[in-house]
Amino acid sequence: MTPPTADSRLVALNDWLGEVLASHRFTLAPASADASFRRYFRATLNAPHPLASQASTLIAMDAPPPMENCRSFVHVASLLRAADVHAPQVLAQDLERGFLLVTDLGTRTYLAALDAASAHDFYIDALDALVRFQASSRADVLPPYDEALLRRELDLFPDWYIARHLRRTLAAEERRTLDRVFALVLANNLAQPRVFVHRDYHSRNLMVSAPNPGVLDFQDAVYGPVTYDLVSLLRDAYIEWEEERQIDWAARYWEKARAAGLPVNRDFGAFWQDFEWMGVQRQLKVLGIFARLHHRDGKAGYLQDMPLVMRYLRSACGRYRELSPLLALLDALEDRAHAVGFAS
Prior knowledge:
five-stranded antiparallel sheet, Phosphorylase Kinase, domain 1, Aminoglycoside 3'-phosphotransferase, Chain: A, domain 2, disordered N terminus, disordered C terminus, alpha+beta, 2 domains, two-stranded antiparallel ribbon, single chain
């Protein structure tokens, strides 16, 4: 087994795995990075174990309470698997200490595998899995993606991107402009039909696997706007596709969703507008989160992904008259940021 280290939680996780796996020997190695307090380790077994069937590796999760909640991971994993979506199977759990042992979905993310030739097949698989998950939706099973939560996410933009990252204090009229746009965006988001929402359905959380895709990082799932996960997938912060492909994949999703009886708008043009307005909410939120990850958590790598997210945001704002005040504000912020050297 892995020798003890100064990391007390890793030592405790190692001891717990020793109890779960009994006499089977194993080694632990970091499995993936995460933007939260969770850590993942790959346990390589020296011999087959009844828990693992024929698998030679398993994933151990360290999710320290009270910062993380393993119960939501276990709950959403069961919902995904019941919908025939390839999520990890929970093999053992210690919810009080925040330890889980789950099946290993492999090491190759969509982000690592995607290229111009492979993208279509991978995205069709991801769209099919998304429709299956959404088609299993039921009210009162997951927390609501309600106005309070959507608004808290929007507030990350002024609090972290503008105030902390750009070091800018909004003038009173600028703040009123932002509040008016936020109200319009929220009205659109809240008017959309509701389904199960993974909430981070993108290339870093989808694994190339059989069946494809394997789905990870779903513990924050909610019940909310039908376009949210599609935005996460097609306007991914980590990889960009030309808009023609985005529209093609969105149309294919829309057709699949209608065939599955999902409550998408019967007019694709109206559906696409909902998609774009939902994207504005997510992109504002993501800019705030990336700024927070850098300034609070010391994770500077996310700064390189800000320009793509900003391009998505500016593009959508430029297409809708109601969002033009936000575009003007972004222009003013960008000019100011370049002047003082804090542009993303």
